[in-house]
Write a structure and sequence with these properties.
This protein has ten helices and 24 strands. The chain is of the alpha+beta class.
């Protein structure tokens, strides 16, 4: 009997959640795009309303780009508009800047790609066997009975062999599914570029696989060895943390031990552990069973993923350690690549984007504004009399002012906004889907925030204000980012002419 194979398309959208859709071969045509009319609707703004068309040929998937604005790629090879690519195996499909993963799975595998293959010790469910393997087992049992008869001794021997074969097959099935999950996790993590996206995704995926109800990602700063929470997961809610003000209901003792020992730590039942003095009780949210996973780079632990289940004892056990070590290796490689990319596009002093990355980002946003007929605005912000701050209070104070102003900017940004340092005391903010009124409102909030900020140097208050120029993308700008910059710069010049510490919109 031939095993039925199902086809799946999976991706992580702007909600940072894993989506997985089954592709029905009975449906002649499946469309993918940023439209409710599409069979598979996605929300990334770089995806066209009708972007991709999927069809079938002899059971194999055919992929066609429908003259999209930002292109489609199959295994990193770009499709020409209207070109059809046939695939018969697991493959990456990229549309715009959204990566999707096409894979084939047996019918007896779960439709939830990341459903756990592990079970608590009190669960005896077994993974369903494929029909080919099960048919072989039954046939072997019949042959043994025909050859050796059915007396008591032979029956016991046959049953023993059958049980051992079942256990072996079950173990192999589990390992196969583990490997498929690890392959999918590796693909997903290596598509994430931002630190926020990577850590939230890594935490969410491993929590689903291991049935963890809560988790933390803790990274250690190389300069001062301080640990900081960067992502949290409370049951199904994943949160990104920049301020580290979230409750630390984890054991610092276990985190420190993981950093020192560089190995997975599993606590089966915290109610039976007397050494975790810094962990809240189960009743107060401390967690019943715990797993702590090291993230290693160049032989040193740079972070840990801390998981717990609030109620179940022994939710994690030593059988999971090989899986967790491989998972941690994939996550560490992705983290290393992400940090390298982050350093390349980030200004060291302010931790905002570099000018080159802002230039590239604005070009892409202009293409989106043209394609989707949506608003786009930019702000140019210039700290007033910054040279006097350096001359009167010193360059270290000037650096501090730049860092404080950058923090204020980041506090006011949405997820899709981009902010960068253009050099010296000049900054740029790109605001997709934002008209002139909204852009001016943001500029005013930032301006008032820095004006109210109290910065003390040698018992003196350092006065800091900013002038802002605002411009909105217009059709006459075409694809010339420089023209949009010039409009914002003209507005900034007028703000300075009129006495500084104000926002002017270009008109």
């Amino acid at each position: 009997m031939t095993q039925i194979t199902n086809h799946y398309l999976s991706w992580i959208d702007i909600d940072k959640e894993l989506h997985s859709e089954v592709l029905l071969t009975s449906k002649a045509k499946i469309t993918v795009g940023r439209s409710k009319k599409a069979d598979i609707e996605v929300f990334k703004t770089s995806v066209s309303r009708e972007h991709l068309e999927l069809t079938w040929l002899d059971g194999n998937l055919q992929i066609k780009d429908i003259n999209s604005s930002y292109g489609s790629w199959v295994d990193s090879v770009r499709l020409n508009p209207g070109e059809i690519k046939t695939v018969s195996k697991d493959v990456e499909i990229r549309i715009g800047n959204l990566s999707m993963w096409y894979e084939l799975r047996r019918e007896d595998e779960s439709q939830e790609m990341m459903q756990t293959v592990f079970h608590s010790t009190n669960v005896t469910d077994e993974i369903g066997l494929s029909s080919e393997i099960n048919n072989f087992r039954v046939k072997l049992q019949s042959l043994l009975q025909e050859s050796f008869g059915d007396n008591t001794l032979n029956s016991q021997l046959i049953n023993t062999l059958n049980e051992e074969l079942l256990q072996l097959i079950n173990k192999q099935e589990r390992q196969l599914k583990e490997q498929r999950i690890l392959n999918s996790i590796s693909h997903i993590l290596n598509r994430s570029l931002t630190l926020s996206e990577l850590l939230k995704t890594a935490l969410n995926l491993v929590s689903k696989v291991l049935n963890a109800e809560r988790g933390f990602v803790v990274l250690r700063h190389t300069n001062d060895n301080k640990s900081e929470i960067y992502a949290l997961r409370y049951f199904d809610a994943v949160v990104w943390s920049d301020d580290n003000n979230n409750p630390k209901q984890y054991s610092q003792t276990l985190v420190d031990s993981c950093f020192k020992q560089n190995e997975v730590i599993i606590v089966g039942d915290t109610q039976l552990s007397n050494h975790l003095k810094d962990l809240a009780s189960v009743k107060n949210g401390g967690g019943r069973s715990i797993a702590v996973i090291p993230l290693v780079q160049d032989g040193e632990v740079v972070g840990v993923i801390y998981l717990d289940n609030q109620q179940l004892p022994h939710n994690f056990d030593k059988l999971q350690i090989p899986f967790l070590n491989t998972y941690a290796a994939h996550t560490s490689i992705a983290l290393h690549n992400t940090l390298l990319f982050k350093r390349a596009i980030t200004d060291d002093l302010t931790q905002l984007y570099t000018r080159q990355h802002i230039d590239e980002g604005l070009e892409l946003e202009i293409q989106r504004a043209q394609s989707d007929k949506q608003d786009l605005s930019i702000l140019i912000l210039d700290l007033d009399h910054f040279k006097k701050i350096n001359d009167n209070y010193g360059h270290t104070t000037g650096d501090l002012v730049l860092q404080i102003f950058s923090r204020i900017i980041k506090e006011h940004l949405r997820d899709d906004d981009m902010a960068g340092r253009f050099g010296g005391e000049e900054f740029v903010i790109i605001l997709p889907n934002t008209g002139l009124k909204g852009a001016k409102g943001l500029a005013e909030r930032i301006r008032l925030s820095i004006e109210k900020e109290v910065i003390i140097k040698d018992n003196q208050t350092v006065p800091v204000t900013v002038s802002v120029g605002v411009a909105n993308y217009q059709s006459q700008h075409g694809d010339k980012a420089l023209l949009l910059f010039e409009d914002a710069d003209t507005a900034l010049y007028r703000a300075k002419e009129k006495g500084r510490n104000q926002t002017i919109c270009f008109s």
